[in-house]
Amino acid sequence: MKIIVIAIGGAVGAVLRYLVSLLVISQMGDSWPYGTLAVNLIGFLWQLFETITYADNMRLLIFTGGLGAFTTFSTFGCNRSLPPSKISISVKRQVLAMEELSCLAAVGQ
Question: Rounded to whole angstroms, how far apart are CA atoms 107 and 25?
Fold first, then answer.
């Protein structure tokens, strides 16, 4: 049952991530990965200000599945594999450094 709950949350999180990224790119352009920054900031702020206690399955649905698909690691792999012509090397290095620092900060909590 837990796997199904995580899968449902992941499906919703992935679709929301895609839609938020499209919205941000339509407003800001794609010269810098603003969509990645937006979803990671939303996920970070959600977890930072989260004070509600959830039942186990709801926590798995929202955080493990939903925010897991909505935020960092799938994006990290996507950004790492972008061709240099799509994004400049210096911008790519900046984004990767920010993502790596974010991961280290999250692990340190």
Answer: 29
